[in-house]
Structures are given as structure tokens and as C-alpha cells.
Design brief:
One of its GO terms (molecular function) is metallopeptidase activity. Keywords: Hydrolase, Membrane, Metalloprotease, Protease, Transmembrane, Transmembrane helix. InterPro entries: Rce1/LyrA-like_dom. Pfam families: Rce1-like. It comes from Ruegeria haliotis. With 183 residues, the protein is mainly alpha-helical. The chain has one domain. Helix content is 70%, strand content 0%. Helix 2 runs parallel beside helix 7, helix 5 crosses helix 6 and helix 6 runs antiparallel to helix 7. It is globular. 27% of the residues are buried. The model has no long low-confidence stretch (mean pLDDT 93).
């Protein structure tokens, strides 16, 4: 999983670097264009949703890492933002919108297309839960990137969402060991 993500990230970096008019400093634009209240609301809503979902679909997995392997959960919480959320946002938001803006549909169509591509990239998990959550996440992260104009905010939301997912036990669906052939 991670070698593929890092390989695609490397390719994305090369493509971004070659994108006409793109400057790396753009990643800092409007980096603080969000509020703590908005972030707190997202944290609460995401937590409540994920706890409710795990209780409905797999109560046996609820808070598994927190109960059984808290040191692994801490490692995920530290590593996930940098090793997963950051590269994915670079590829699925920055590269997608900066390099391919000319061929994207306007308005909501671009948001929906981006969320669909983001969800499609997670199909290797063969889970409707992953597909639905990554589609919804794709919409939210796209909103943070496009409407708020903040790559940093998209990364923060993505990191928080992923860390909550793993903390409550939904990480069992996003675990790279679940990737099946032909992937």
C-alpha cells in the first residue's frame, strides 16, 4: 500500500512541478482560513458518526486498538497525517484541481468528480463502508481545499478523520491487510 502511495505521490510531485503556473508556495495560501469552532464541530460530528457506525456494524471491533494496542494507535495518530493524509491531499486535491482544472466540470460537478475519484482509489479495500466514507470525505476535503482555499485545512480534516476512524475501530476496513487481489 504505502509503496504505491509514495510512488504515486512522487509522480504527482513531478506532474505538479511541471504544471504551468503552479508554485509550491500555493500550498500555504489561506492556510489558516478556518475556525476552531468549525474544527471542533467536525471533530464532534465525525466522532459521534463513527462511534455509532462501529456500534451498528461491528461492535466487537469498537475501540479495539485503544483497548488492545494503544501504542499502535499512538503510532497511527502520529504517522497517519504525514504518511497518508498529506500525500493523498497533494494528489487528490492539489494535483487534481491545479493540473486538470481546464477539463473539469464546473461547480458541484468538480466536487462530485473529485469525491468519486477519491473513493475509486480506495476500492482496493472491497468495502462499501470504505467507498461511502471516502466519497463523503472526498466531498468534505474538496470543500476545505476549494471553498476555504486551504490545502492545510484539507490535510488537517483528512488527518482528524483518519485518526478518528482508527481510534473507534473502523480502521479494520481501512487496514492495508484488507487489500485483496487483483490489487
Amino acid at each position: 500500500m504505502f509503496p504505491a502511495l509514495f510512488g504515486f505521490t512522487g509522480l504527482g510531485i513531478v506532474l505538479l512541478h511541471g504544471t504551468s503556473g503552479f508554485q509550491w508556495s500555493e500550498l500555504r495560501y489561506d492556510w489558516a482560513n478556518w475556525s476552531w469552532r468549525e474544527l471542533a464541530l467536525f471533530l464532534v460530528v465525525m466522532s459521534v458518526f463513527c462511534v455509532a457506525l462501529i456500534q451498528v456494524i461491528r461492535p466487537d471491533a469498537a475501540f479495539f486498538l485503544l483497548r488492545r494496542q494503544p501504542e499502535l494507535l499512538v503510532a497511527i495518530w502520529i504517522g497517519y497525517p504525514l504518511a497518508s493524509a498529506l500525500p493523498q491531499e497533494l494528489l487528490f486535491r492539489t494535483l487534481f484541481f491545479r493540473r486538470y482544472h481546464a477539463i473539469l466540470p464546473g461547480g458541484r460537478g468538480a466536487y462530485l468528480l473529485n469525491a468519486a475519484v477519491f473513493s475509486f482509489a480506495h476500492l482496493m479495500y472491497w468495502s462499501w463502508i470504505v467507498a461511502a466514507m471516502t466519497f463523503a470525505g472526498g466531498l468534505l476535503f474538496t470543500w476545505a481545499y476549494r471553498k476555504r482555499g486551504s490545502f492545510v485545512y484539507a490535510v488537517i480534516l483528512h488527518a482528524i478523520a483518519g485518526n478518528i476512524i482508527f481510534a473507534v475501530g473502523l480502521g479494520i476496513y481501512f487496514y492495508s491487510g484488507n487489500v485483496q487481489r487483483p490489487f
